[in-house]
Amino acid sequence: MTNNIVWHPSTITKQDRQKLNGHKSCVLWFTGLSGSGKSTLANAIQVKLHQLGVRSYILDGDNIRYGLNKGLGFSKEDRAENIRRIGEVAKLFVDCGIITLTALVSPFREDREQVRNLFPEGEFIEVYVRCPLDICEKRDPKGLYQKARRGAILQFTGIDSPYEAPLFPEIVIETDKCSIAEGGDTVISYLKGKGII
Fold first, then answer.
1. Residue tagged active-site, from 36, 106, 161, 189
2. Is 106 a catalytic residue?
3. Rounded CA separation 163/171 (Å)
């Protein structure tokens, strides 16, 4: 890394952009097993935010791997770099005054904590989308568990690679016990309660 890089501060601040938007910004970091409902929940919440006139954007794990993280695989090192990059992009979106929703397995606590440390207190909201493995496997919307069980996908979270559940998430949504609409309402209520929207 070169020593000739100097951070150039913006004349317009995050607070200026938030004031213009009429709401604060944060990252809602959805984490959970594949098939737990992260993307479905994030999309449902984005619809609710849009209806409320709140600016938001979803950084979906699969979508990001089509472009920014195209060259990364699923080794522990590549997963860590995937999360690091998405965390940095989320930080830019939050600086723009936008509520940013990420939908990523992000299986390792250490990686999620490194992203949390990029944000001031209260701007990183970890949403644990909890669902038992057997139900995620029954859902299997992408057919990934089936492939992992056959050995066609190696290092698959929940099968031959661990998922480290959050210890102290801000929000827990149990998608085997509540509807997506109910889960979305829980997140919206949290955001209202914290004065973010």
1. 106
2. yes
3. 18
